[in-house]
What we know:
This protein has 185 residues and is an alpha/beta fold. It has seven helices and six strands; from the N terminus they run βαβαβαβααβαβα.
Amino acid sequence: MFIIPGFNHLPTSKAYRQIAKILKSEDYFPVLVKIPWKNTSILENTKYFLKEYKKIKAKKKYILGFSFGAMIAFIASTKVRSSGLILCSLSPFFKEDLPISETMMKKNKDFHKLRCVSLAKKIKSKQILMMYGAQEAKSLIRRVTDAFNRISSANKFLISIYKTEHNIGTKRYLNKIHQAARALN
Length: 185
C-alpha cells in the first residue's frame, strides 16, 4: 500500500510511521512515498507518484493519501488501476472550489485545471474508502461528500470520524485507517 503524506509532511513523521505499522499488522507492505513538495505543482507531484507506483510490481496495489496527498491519490487513481483507494481528508482545491479557496488557487496553477466532477467519473480503483474528520473545515467536508457522490463505483464507502480535526495522526483517525485496512484486505 502506497502512503502519500499531506503537503510538506514527511513520510518519516510519527503519524505515517504509525500508519505503516498498522498496515504491516494487516499483512500489507507499506510504501511510504516522499513527495518533493518544494516548487512543484499538484500535477507534477502526481507524475512523480505514478513513477514510484509503476516501479513496484505486485498483484494487488493500494493507495492511501492524506489531504494534498489524497488529491494526488485521487488524480493518480484516474490513470492507473488499484485494488483499493483510501482518501483521507481530500483537499478542497479543485476548479469547482475556486470561490472558496482563491488564495490557494493562485499558489498552484494546476488547481484551475482539475475538475473533481470529471475526475471522479474516471477512478479505476476496485474499492474506494473516503474519510474525513467531522470537525474539519466545511469546505473540505463539502468537497469529500461531493466527490464521493460523483464516484460511480458501487464499492465505495464514506466515513466521518467523530470529534476529529484535520490531523491524520490522531487516535480516532488511525483507528479508522486500521478498520479500513481490514475492510480492504
